[in-house]
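Figure 3 (text version): C-alpha cells given as input.
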C-alpha cells in the first residue's frame, strides 16, 4: 500500500480517526507539528504528531517520520517519550500518538532561568544516560540530542521526569532495512550539538549520542552551548576544528572533574570520548573507583562506581540480593536488586527477567515501581528502583490477618488502575503476588505499589517446562496460587488472567488466606476445578454481598465467565458499597 503523506493543519475540536479529539497546537520540530488531543474513549490527554505541511510529498520526510514511530515504539524507559499509536488519516497522512508531556523543554528552562543547579543537572543527565544506554543496547542511536529534545513531565504526585523526544532521525545500527541518512543538519539549532563525524557524513554510532549528551551537559551547567556563532559557516568551522572552552570558564564554581568529563564527551574523535552514556554521567557526578566494600560487586558493571551499597535488606527471587543504596552523584536513596552468576542454575532465567523488567515494561503509574537503572556484566546483573519504606502486602496480611472491607476496596482499586495502565501498553501483571506488592504511605495516604518483578513473572517459572516436569512442578513460595487455571494448563495469558490474579489477592486481603492452597501444580488444578473456594461472606462478615459476587466472578474457572477486561471489573468494583456490611 502506498502511504499518503499529505498533511493539513489540524483544527480545534477536530476528530481524528474517530478516536482522538484534536485541541491546540503545542509545538513543531524539524519535520513535525504536535497537537494536544483527547482520547475520546479513555478521556486522557495525548500528543499527536503530524508531518509538517511544508514537507510536501518528500519521501525522505515520510520515511524518517515512520522511523521515529518504530524507533520510539521499540523503547520502554521512563526517560523516553512513549509512542502509543500510529495511523494514517485520509486528509492528513501518517500520525504518531504519544504520551503528552506537560512541562517545558530544557531549552525553555535555560532560556527562562539560565543554568541548572549542579546536583539537579547531574540527576537529570544520569537518567538520560540510562535511557540512551538502553537505546544503544538495541542498536538505536538518536543523533539529534539537544536541549529542545529533552522535555519535562510533572506527574500528579509532584514527581518531575525529563524525557527524550524526537527519534525522527534515529538510526538502527546493523539494520539493512534502515536506509535513513543525514544529508546535513536538519535545522541550524541542531548544529551546536551535532558531532563532527555526523556533519561530515560519516557513520554515526552510539558515540554520536555521547557527544550530544556532552553538549547538552555543557549548556545545562553553564547556560550556553559549547559553540555559539551567528552563521552556519562559522558554526561548522568551530564544531569541526575548535576545542570547546572548559565549562568552568563560564561557570567558575564547577569542579575540575566536571571540565574533564564534559570535554572528553566532546572530543572530535569518537574513540576518544566516553564509550557509554552512563560512564560519562558517572564521571560528571564525581564517582571515582574505590575499594570494594561489603562484597560490593564491581567487575565492570559500573554498579559500585555509581551507587554506594548499604545494608542488605533481604533476598529476592532466584537467589537475588536486595540492598539499600545511595546514588553517589545525587545522594538519592534507592534499592538495588542483584543477581550473581554464582546464585546457581537460575542465572539465565534471572538475567532474562531482570533485563525484561528494565527494558520492556516501563509504565509511568504511581502504583507501579519504576526501574531507574540497570546493568550487567559477565558475573552479575542488577536493577535499581526507588526505595519505598513500608511492608509488603504479604507481611501485612501475615501480621494483621484479614483487612477490613473499606481498606480492601480502596487498595484493590490501586491494582485495577495499575493493571489497566499496563494493558494499555501491552503488558500484564501476570505473576503478581502479595510478596511483591508493597504498601506505601505518603502524605498520610496508603497505596499499593507493584514491583515490576510481577510483570510476566511466571513465564520464567513455566518456560520450557515439559508436560512431565509440569505435573511434578513444586510451587515456589506459593507463586502459582495467583495464576489463572488456564495458564497452569498451558494456555497463553491475557487480560482475563490478570482479572483472576486480582480476584485472588482481593480474596486474600478480605479473608486472610488465599482461595486455594496446594504444593504442586496438579494439586492446585484439582482444587480449582473440583473443590472450589470457601464463601467470602463466611470468612469475612464485613464484606458486602456485592463485593463477594464480584470476586467470585473474577475467580471463575473459565476466562469467558469473568469480566471482559479490567475496565469492566473496575466499574463493577466501584459500584460496591464503600462501608462494611452489618
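Below: residues designed for each position.
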Amino acid at each position: 500500500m502506498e502511504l499518503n503523506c499529505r498533511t493539513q493543519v489540524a483544527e480545534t475540536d477536530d476528530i481524528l480517526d474517530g478516536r482522538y479529539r484534536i485541541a491546540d497546537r503545542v509545538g513543531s520540530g524539524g519535520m513535525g507539528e504536535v497537537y494536544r488531543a483527547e482520547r475520546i474513549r479513555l478521556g486522557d490527554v495525548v500528543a499527536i504528531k503530524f508531518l509538517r505541511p511544508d514537507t510536501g510529498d518528500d519521501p525522505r520526510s515520510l520515511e524518517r517520520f515512520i522511523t521515529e514511530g518504530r524507533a520510539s515504539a521499540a523503547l520502554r524507559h521512563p526517560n523516553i517519550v512513549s509512542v502509543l499509536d500510529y495511523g494514517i488519516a485520509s486528509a492528513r497522512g501518517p500520525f504518531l500518538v504519544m504520551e503528552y508531556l506537560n512541562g517545558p523543554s530544557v531549552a525553555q528552562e535555560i532560556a527562562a532561568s539560565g543554568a541548572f543547579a549542579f546536583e539537579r543537572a547531574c540527576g537529570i543527565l544520569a537518567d538520560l544516560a540510562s535511557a540512551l544506554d538502553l537505546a544503544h543496547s538495541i542498536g538505536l542511536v538518536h543523533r539529534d540530542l539537544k536541549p529542545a529534545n529533552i522535555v519535562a513531565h510533572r506527574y500528579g504526585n509532584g514527581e518531575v521526569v525529563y524525557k527524550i523526544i524526537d527519534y525522527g532521525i534515529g538510526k538502527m545500527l546493523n539494520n539493512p532495512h534502515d536506509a535513513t541518512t543525514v544529508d546535513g543538519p536538519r535545522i541550524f539549532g541542531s548544529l551546536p550539538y551535532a558531532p563532527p563525524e555526523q556533519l561530515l557524513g560519516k557513520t554515526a554510532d552510539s558515540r554520536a549520542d555521547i557527544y550530544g549528551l556532552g553538549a547538552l551537559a555543557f549548556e545545562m551547567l553553564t547556560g550556553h552551548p559549547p559553540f555559539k556563532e551567528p552563521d552556519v559557516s562559522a558554526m561548522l568551522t568551530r564544531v569541526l576544528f575548535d576545542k570547546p572552552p572548559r565549562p568552568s570558564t563560564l561557570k567558575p564554581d564547577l569542579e575540575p572533574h566536571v571540565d574533564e568529563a564534559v570535554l572528553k564527551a566532546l572530543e572530535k574523535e569518537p574513540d576518544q570520548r566516553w564509550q557509554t552514556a552512563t560512564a560519562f554521567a558517572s564521571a560528571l557526578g564525581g564517582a571515582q573507583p574505590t575499594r570494594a566494600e561489603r562484597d560490593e560487586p564491581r567487575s565492570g558493571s559500573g554498579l559500585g562506581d555509581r551507587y554506594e551499597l548499604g545494608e542488605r535488606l533481604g533476598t529476592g527471587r532466584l537467589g537475588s540480593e536486595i540492598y539499600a543504596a545511595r546514588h553517589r552523584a545525587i545522594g538519592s536513596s534507592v534499592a538495588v536488586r542483584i543477581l550473581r552468576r554464582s546464585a546457581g542454575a537460575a542465572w539465565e532465567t534471572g538475567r532474562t527477567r531482570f533485563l525484561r523488567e528494565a527494558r520492556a515494561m516501563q509504565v509511568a503509574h504511581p502504583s507501579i515501581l519504576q526501574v531507574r537503572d540497570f546493568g550487567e556484566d559477565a558475573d552479575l546483573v542488577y536493577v535499581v528502583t526507588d526505595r519505598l519504606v513500608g511492608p509488603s502486602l504479604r507481611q501485612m496480611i501475615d501480621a494483621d490477618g484479614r483487612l477490613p472491607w473499606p481498606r480492601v476496596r480502596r487498595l484493590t482499586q490501586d491494582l485495577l488502575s495499575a493493571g489497566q495502565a499496563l494493558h494499555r501498553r501491552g503488558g500484564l501483571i501476570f505473576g503478581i503476588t502479595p510478596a511483591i506488592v508493597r504498601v506505601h504511605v505518603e502524605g498520610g495516604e496508603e497505596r499499593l505499589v507493584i514491583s515490576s518483578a510481577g510483570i510476566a513473572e511466571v513465564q520464567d517459572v513455566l518456560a520450557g517446562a515439559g508436560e512431565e516436569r509440569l505435573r511434578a512442578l513444586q510451587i515456589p513460595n506459593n507463586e502459582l496460587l495467583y495464576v489463572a487455571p488456564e495458564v497452569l494448563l498451558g494456555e497463553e495469558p491475557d487480560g482475563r488472567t490478570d482479572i483472576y490474579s486480582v480476584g485472588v489477592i482481593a480474596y486474600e486481603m478480605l479473608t486472610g488466606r488465599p482461595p486455594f492452597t496446594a504444593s504442586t501444580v496438579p494439586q492446585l488444578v484439582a482444587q480449582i476445578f473440583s473443590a472450589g473456594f470457601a464463601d467470602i461472606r463466611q470468612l469475612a462478615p464485613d464484606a458486602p454481598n456485592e463485593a463477594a459476587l464480584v470476586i467470585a466472578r473474577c475467580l471463575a474457572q473459565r476466562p469467558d465467565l469473568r469480566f471482559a477486561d479490567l475496565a469492566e471489573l473496575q466499574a463493577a468494583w466501584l459500584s460496591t458499597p464503600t462501608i462494611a456490611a452489618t
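The first strand starts at residue 15 and ends at 16.
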